[in-house]
Amino acid sequence: MASQSSELGNLLLTYVGPEPERVRTAIALLSHDDTERMRHLLECAATDYRDVLWWAEQEQSEAEQRGALAAMTVNERLSHLNLMSAWDAAIAACDSETAKTILAVCAIPQADALKIVEAVIGRA
Length: 124
Description:
Elements: H1 2-12, H2 20-31, H3 35-70, H4 74-80, H5 84-92, H6 96-105, H7 110-123
Helix pairs in contact: 1-3, 2-3, 5-6, 6-7
């Protein structure tokens, strides 16, 4: 493990472009300790470092969104993501596939989504 950390750290130091601290931090976060992924991100940063910064920002935003959704009920998730109308339409049409897709967007696990849709459409 220590040798991999050392290798990753040395690899990160090969980036010498603009905003090195920010870009290295972004690469470290995006690589998830995968050497090949880090190499790829370093190549991308050499082409345009702003891509790497944007990707890291998007990943952080998505993680924050997932965290926020995890504390919400299904109805709160639907409302928060502005999907309540689409959900209501799918349920009214007894369209279980669309309803499951909407729940997937809400970060509901597939097995739970199936149970929810079966229960709700069964009542419709």
